[in-house]
Amino acid sequence: MQRFRDVVILLIEDDAGDQRLIEKSLCNEKILNELVTVNNAENALQYLQRCQDSDKESPRPDLILLDLNMPGMGGKEFLKHIKNNPELNDIPVVVLTTSDSEQDVLESYKLQAAGYIKKPVTLQGFQQMMSDMEEYWFVVCKRVVQRQPS
Amino acid sequence: MQNLKNVVVLIVEDDPIDQKSIERAFSNQEVIDKVNVVASAEEALDYLRRSKEQDSDAPRPSLILLDLALPGMQGKEFLKCIKEDERLCSIPVVILTCSDNQEDIEQSYKLYAAGYAQKPLNAAELDNIVKKLVKYWFTTSSLL
């Protein structure tokens, strides 16, 4: 019998303060979430490789939240990588960044980001953003159901 | 912020009853300036061709809402077409369909759908879905 998982979100964010704000915002949410945080794109790729290898400790994310400006591999390069991988390209990736440059918005959507969110500046702003995002992705939208590794 | 610009939504839906209820639900949202409805993927492609030619009667949509089961070209084929077009691929396409078949969901996301919602059974639920969808795309997210 197929077993269903809770919602898993992978957050790729190098800024410790923003990590904390997002974690704190999720605590208030009704939707049962598991937030996995990694500090850079390289660690995210390693995490996703473990998911593909069916590592029980690395559940496949239902949604990826991606910062654009990171040390090492940039967010757009990571997005391109994921969307070109047939094993991973069905995972929605939402860009969450301080940049509101029109060029970044355009390039992110061309690389098939499923949303482009400018980071709020307050905890309340983060809470509202996480709430709206979760209502859309996990209440309005259907997600791909994954089987639990046995 | 998106709501400083003209916000246009293109709805691709063949069922006249669904067309009316979806159009009404979107028209109720303050941030939306214009809702354009077409009844087939072919009509949608024609609309988007005109929008590329800067036809003022076919303003470029910020978001496309797409039914999957259509007469003629199917929703998924249309989605593939849009995502392969360099000038259109940046427009998010959200699926709104009767099907909750896992294969449809997975294939749509693999074709880069930016969401997959199932059509609800009543108008109040549809209003609620559209409200949340509009809030996510036009208030929380930035669009082009």
Task: Explain this structure.
The complex is a heterodimer of chains A (150) and B (144). Chain A is built from five helices and five strands; from the N terminus they run βαβαβαβαβα. With 150 residues, chain A is an alpha/beta fold. In chain A, strands 2-1-3-4-5 form a five-stranded parallel β-sheet, sandwiched between helices. In chain A, helix 4 (102-110) links the parallel strand 4 and strand 5. In chain A, helix 1 crosses helix 5 (123-140). Chain B is of the alpha/beta class and 144 residues long. Helix content of chain B is 42%, strand content 15%. Chain B has helices spanning 16-27, 41-52, 75-83, 102-110, 123-140; strands at 8-12, 34-38, 63-66, 93-97, 116-118. A five-stranded parallel β-sheet of chain B has the order 2-1-3-4-5, with helices on both faces. The mean pLDDT of chain B is 94. Classes of the chains: A alpha/beta (150), B alpha/beta (144). The interface between A and B is medium-sized, with 32 and 29 residues.
Lay out the secondary structure:
The complex is a heterodimer of chains A (150) and B (144).
Chain A lengths: L6 E6 L3 H12 L5 E6 L2 H12 L10 E4 L8 H9 L9 E5 L4 H9 L5 E3 L4 H18 L10
Parallel strand pairs in A: 1-2, 1-3, 3-4, 4-5
Chain B lengths: L7 E5 L3 H12 L6 E5 L2 H12 L10 E4 L8 H9 L9 E5 L4 H9 L5 E3 L4 H18 L4
Parallel strand pairs in B: 1-2, 1-3, 3-4, 4-5
